[in-house]
């Protein structure tokens, strides 16, 4: 049961990374893929009416964390207090910018929100990347000592730890580039006109950079947590995920040059999902890794709520999932194909 | 020092939740007006309903967006600011919070974009369905939040796990908590009061402004009619049932709400007066004899315990504020019934649109349901103190020990500034929509 809930939690976060990822990536390219306000209107329309639905995967993932692993929530959220509020405020900025940008027909109004929107997306991609870096690197957990991490210390991964160090910063940079590439792939299948042309060109060099950065981050991970790679060897699920990553990688490296936008797009989705899946499979069962000593780590087993709570939730969770997919199927029918600027107000 | 931290955690949660709830109460209140107008438009093709739905959908969209972005911090704060509570009760209240995400957020978010921007893309029938979906989703979301609150007010469906934390014993008892069902009816009607006052106020504004389009008349008629029915149901039976439940399950809270220190039969209800807690008395009260016994237990002679009957460490921690909050809510609720009864009377006599003084009052009355809703929630939450989970877990044990009071104060100040700007933006955007009014017969692309 615990294993199942670990898988559900990972599933929700992976889906958020893929669906929310293209919205964040496209938004981060707001000034690069779209050069004037008409084009930016096209870009916003391509992100489309389902951006909130995509973001709900993060919020509902938080709900799953709450019900299934309350101890994980209770330790990690206070430890990252100020960083989490930075995420929240940036999410507020991004949501408001996206919603109100088109409400007033004024050049200055749109210019202001365009800037806020792009900046918020870039910052969020970096923050999400740093969060992944922190989960992999671990935190100085001890028994019964409330933990609070500073934003940064000496940028080293040994000794006194901060949220940002050379490792988490590299993961953050990789995440930013990877999401930008993903966003460009998305725009290349969803947008038209100049935005489409630029997005197509961007995928040609953003994806190769992302792959190079991935190789670097993998080497760094081998230095920071070598046991993750040895553990990966005897986990079949990690192998499946790695195969997916490799397949996705092939598609994103070859797709842009043969003009196969759809293949690139799906390749990017599989690449991101496979990468996070392989990380989750080799991290299991540890959720919060203690850099002090393995015995203080919070795992899916010692961090989960009681079996009765997990059992009750497994009845309603699949029902909710099927319902939620059916609503989106209903709405998507009307929004399939290429989007143009007419879908956004101004 | 530790009490200091608990104080700032409480203030931050109280501030962010009060601010957040200004928006969902209007969302939930407007949602069914929109469904009704979309339905009538679909059935009769009468353009007035289509125009009305279009104007209020634009306002709804702005309101909904602010509700969403101010709502996400609420869920996060359980973890960041109330970690000990989350660890203690996560296996139980995590259920309803996760269900809110899985069942209602996915529901609402799938349809909201299509509802606000997609009238042309979806066509009349599917656009009606999208509106219905958003309405159902927003009410479902309200229910899951009230289940969570009801568990904190009157825990049900739980058991103790081996480590002393709470675990779920019965999902049915947890979800169908009696407190949640009654609170839901009371709260949702109060949200409809907010929605109808807003619609009536805009109607009064258009009529006073001299608009000829007929939208003002439509809004006045609907706002006044629905507003009267909803105000009545808020008082009876739902408010009445809520009070009887508090009397039974939280007698300390009832005593503090009424500023009642001594026990005894034929308990009075206080219309006006100031509680003086150090002297254990109510200064210059105006009372109705026997009414509290009657309202709380259905008979005038029933003994209603005062605070003196309970140990002091189970008294609500801020009796004065609780007393005032309750009296503001109940007083305003009564005035709402009178105002809407008068408006309907004039409407039936065909004189509402020429009663300029009444129109001015209706136009300026729309903030008061927001105040009454807030005061009602303050009554519920202050009445629950000193408990976080009533009778089981104290508020002072629930906050995050790892977070200093300085860090909390910092984020509180951040929220204050950010929400001030968001509020300005909201007033500007909604004000523009109201001033602009409905475009007759224009489908929003």
Return the average pLDDT of chain A rounded to an integer: 91
Q: Into which percent range does the helicity of residues of chain A fall?
A: over 70%
In spatial order, strands of the major sheet of chain B run 1-2
- Secondary structure class of chain A reads mainly alpha
Give the neighbour order of strands across the main sheet of chain A. Answer: 1-2
Keywords:
heterodimer, A: 346 residues, mainly alpha, 12 helices, globular, B: 445 residues, two-stranded antiparallel ribbon
Walk me through what this model shows.
Chain A is mainly α. Chain A has one domain. Chain A is built from 12 helices and 2 strands, in the order αααααααααααββα. Chain A has a two-stranded antiparallel sheet with strand order 1-2. By secondary structure, chain B is mainly α. Chain B has one domain. Chain B has 13 helices and 6 strands. A two-stranded antiparallel sheet of chain B has the order 1-2. Chain B is globular and about 65 Å long. The termini of chain B are far apart. The chains are: A mainly alpha (346), B mainly alpha (445). Chains A and B meet through helix 3, helix 4, helix 5 and helix 12 of A and helix 2, helix 3, helix 4 and helix 13 of B.
């Amino acid at each position: 049961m615990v294993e199942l809930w670990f898988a559900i939690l990972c599933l929700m976060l992976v889906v958020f990374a893929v669906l929310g990822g293209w919205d964040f990536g496209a938004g981060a390219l707001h000034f690069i893929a779209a050069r004037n306000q008409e084009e930016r209107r096209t870009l916003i329309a391509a992100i489309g009416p389902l951006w909130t639905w995509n973001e709900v995967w993060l919020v509902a993932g938080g709900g799953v964390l709450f019900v299934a692993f309350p101890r994980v929530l209770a330790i990690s959220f206070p430890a990252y207090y100020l960083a989490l509020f930075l995420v929240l405020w940036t999410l507020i900025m991004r949501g408001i910018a996206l919603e109100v940008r088109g409400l007033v027909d004024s050049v200055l109004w749109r210019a202001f929100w365009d800037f806020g929107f792009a900046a918020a997306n870039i910052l969020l991609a970096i923050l999400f990347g740093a969060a992944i870096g922190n989960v992999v690197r671990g935190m100085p957990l001890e028994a019964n000592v409330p933990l609070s991490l500073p934003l940064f210390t000496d940028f080293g991964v040994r000794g006194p730890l901060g949220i940002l160090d050379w490792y988490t910063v590299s993961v953050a940079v990789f995440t930013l580039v990877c999401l930008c590439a993903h966003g460009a792939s998305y725009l290349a299948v969803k947008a038209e006109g100049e935005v489409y042309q630029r997005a197509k060109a961007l995928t040609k060099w953003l994806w190769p950079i992302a792959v190079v950065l991935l190789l670097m981050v993998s080497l760094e991970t081998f230095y920071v947590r070598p046991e993750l790679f040895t553990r990966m060897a005897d986990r079949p699920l990690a192998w499946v995920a790695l195969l997916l990553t490799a397949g996705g990688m092939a598609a994103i490296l070859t797709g842009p040059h043969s003009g196969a936008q759809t293949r690139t797009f799906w390749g990017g989705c599989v690449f991101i999902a496979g990468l996070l899946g392989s990380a989750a499979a080799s991290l299991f069962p540890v959720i919060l890794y203690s850099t002090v000593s393995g015995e203080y780590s919070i795992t899916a087993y010692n961090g989960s709520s009681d079996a009765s709570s997990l059992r009750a939730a497994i009845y309603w969770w699949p029902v909710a999932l099927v319902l939620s997919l059916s609503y989106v199927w209903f709405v998507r029918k009307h929004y399939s194909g290429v989007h143009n600027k007419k879908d956004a107000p101004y | 020092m530790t009490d200091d931290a608990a104080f700032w955690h409480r203030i931050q949660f109280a501030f962010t939740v009060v601010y957040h709830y200004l928006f969902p109460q209007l969302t939930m209140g407007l949602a069914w007006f929109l469904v009704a107008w979309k339905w009538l438009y679909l059935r009769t093709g009468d353009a007035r309903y289509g125009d009305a739905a279009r104007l209020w959908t634009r306002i709804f969209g702005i309101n909904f967006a602010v509700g969403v972005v101010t709502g996400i911090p609420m869920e996060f704060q359980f973890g960041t600011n109330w970690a000990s509570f989350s660890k203690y009760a996560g296996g139980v209240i995590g259920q309803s919070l996760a269900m809110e995400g899985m069942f209602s957020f996915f529901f609402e978010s799938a349809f909201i974009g299509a509802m606000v921007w997609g009238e042309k893309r979806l066509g009349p029938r599917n656009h009606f369905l999208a509106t219905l979906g958003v309405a159902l989703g927003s009410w479902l979301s309200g229910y899951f939040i009230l289940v969570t609150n009801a568990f904190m007010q009157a825990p049900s469906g739980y058991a103790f796990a081996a480590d002393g934390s709470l675990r779920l014993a019965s999902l049915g008892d947890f979800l169908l908590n009696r407190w949640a069902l009654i609170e839901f009816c009371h709260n949702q009607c109060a949200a409809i009061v907010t929605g109808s006052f807003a619609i009536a106020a805009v109607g009064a504004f258009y009529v006073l402004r001299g608009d000829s389009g007929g939208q003002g008349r439509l809004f006045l008629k609907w706002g006044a009619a629905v507003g009267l029915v909803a105000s009545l149901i808020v008082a009876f039976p739902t408010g009445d049932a809520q009070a009887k439940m508090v009397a039974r399950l939280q007698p300390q809270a009832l005593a503090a709400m009424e500023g009642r220190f001594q026990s005894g039969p034929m308990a009075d209800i206080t219309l006006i007066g100031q509680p003086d807690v150090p002297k254990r008395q109510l200064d210059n009260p105006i009372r109705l004899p026997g009414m509290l016994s009657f309202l709380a237990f259905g008979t005038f002679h029933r003994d209603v315990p005062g605070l003196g009957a309970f140990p002091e460490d189970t008294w609500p921690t801020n009796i004065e504020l609780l007393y005032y909050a309750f009296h503001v809510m109940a007083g305003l609720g009564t005035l709402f019934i009178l105002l809407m009864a008068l408006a309907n009377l004039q409407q039936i006599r065909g004189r509402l649109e020429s009663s300029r003084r009444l129109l001015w009052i209706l136009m300026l009355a729309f903030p008061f349901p927001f105040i009454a809703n807030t005061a009602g929630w303050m009554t519920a939450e202050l009445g629950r103190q000193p408990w976080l989970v009533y009778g089981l877990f104290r508020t002072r044990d629930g906050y995050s020990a790892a977070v200093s009071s300085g860090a909390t104060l910092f984020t509180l100040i951040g929220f204050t500034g950010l929400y001030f700007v968001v509020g300005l933006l909201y007033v500007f955007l909604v004000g523009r929509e109201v001033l602009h009014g409905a475009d007759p017969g224009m489908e929003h692309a």
